[in-house]
Amino acid sequence: MSDLAIEMSGVAKTYPFFSLDDLQLNVPRGEIMGLIGPNGAGKSTTIRILMGLVHQDAGEVHVLGHRMPAEQIAAKWEIGFASEDMRLYESMTVAWHMGFIQSIYPTWDPTYAQLLLKRFGLQPEQKVKGLSHGQRVKTSLLLVFARKPKLLVLDEPTTGLDPVARHEILRELTDVMRDEGRTVLFSSHHTQDVEQISDRITFIDRGHIIDSMDKETYLDRWRRLRLEVPLGVELPALPGVINVRQQGRLAIATANAFRSDLANAYERTGARVQGIEAMTLEEIFVANVERSREEVEA
Amino acid sequence: MESLFVISQSDKRPLYLQIMDQIKRRIAAGDWAEGQSIPSTRQLAADLQVSVITVKRAYLELEREGVIVTHQGKGSRIASTPGLAGRLREDELQEHLEKATRIALELGLRPRELEKRLRDAGDRIAERETV
Question: Global pTM?
Answer without folding.
Answer: 0.82
